[in-house]
Each structure stands twice: as structure tokens, then as C-alpha cells.
Amino acid sequence: MAPRSISLILLLTAVHHVYGRVPKPPGIPMVDIESDYVHHALKARALPPYDTTYYFDQLIDHNDPSKGTFQQRYWHTAEHYQEGGPIIFMNAGEVNAAPYYGYVTSSTINGVIAQKYGGAAIVLEHRFFGESNPYPNL
């Protein structure tokens, strides 16, 4: 073998050895919360539990509405919402978002910001993950 080939093999072995041990970046941690009925902070009215799942009709192709829609899942709370308040939005990433509904609560920074500024918190499931899939057998 030529010295150049040996050097290349040694380099590739070293790179593989180093990068093969690099852990994957951490995902978003799940939040364990009690899901009971919630009351609006200012209006004292009952709100649905945090783990209530909502759906909306999302276009499969925004450039061609004739392709139809699918049901996209989300979770939200207006527990601290005041008119004109911000919407605190979170996408759980490329995973089933159901375990992440806790991000609408004050147990997370999203909920703390919503509470402080009179906002609503939303967790949206990424299309093609969980149950938000336009094509059921993809």
C-alpha cells in the first residue's frame, strides 16, 4: 500500500473513533404534571385540562390546496391569557408531541412567560410525527 493510502486509512479510523463517540444532542425534556381542570387566572372560569388534545385542518400542500388537508394536533391553554397578550408557541420537534403537553404550564419557561405577560401557550405537533400525518401509511 502506498504511504498516502495508509495515512488516509489512519485518518478515517481516528475520525470515526472520535465522532463515533459523540452523543446525540439532547432532546426536549418531558414535564410530568397533574392534568386536572384549570381555572383562568383572572376570570375564574373553568378551562379544559392541560392534556386536552385539539386538532385543526392543515393543508397538505400550501401551494396546492386541492391536495386536501389532514388533522394536525396541538395542546394549549389560555389560563393566563389577557386580550392582546402574546402567543407562546412550541414545536416539540420530530417526535410524538403528546408527552410534551406540559410545556403549556407554568412548570416550563413557556408557561412562565405566558403567565408573566398574559399570554397563551401552545404546543404543536410536527407534521409527519405522532398522529399529525397527512399520509397514514407513510
From TrEMBL:
The keyword Hydrolase is annotated on this UniProt entry: yes
GO biological process terms, semicolon-separated: proteolysis
Single GO MF annotation: dipeptidyl-peptidase activity
Signal sequence residues: 1-20
Keywords: Glycoprotein, Hydrolase, Protease, Signal
Coiled-coil parts of chain: none
Record carries keyword DNA repair: no
Pfam family, one: Peptidase_S28
Family per similarity comment: Belongs to the peptidase S28 family.
PANTHER family recorded: PROTEASE S28 PRO-X CARBOXYPEPTIDASE-RELATED, SERINE PEPTIDASE
Protein name, UniProt field: Peptidase S28
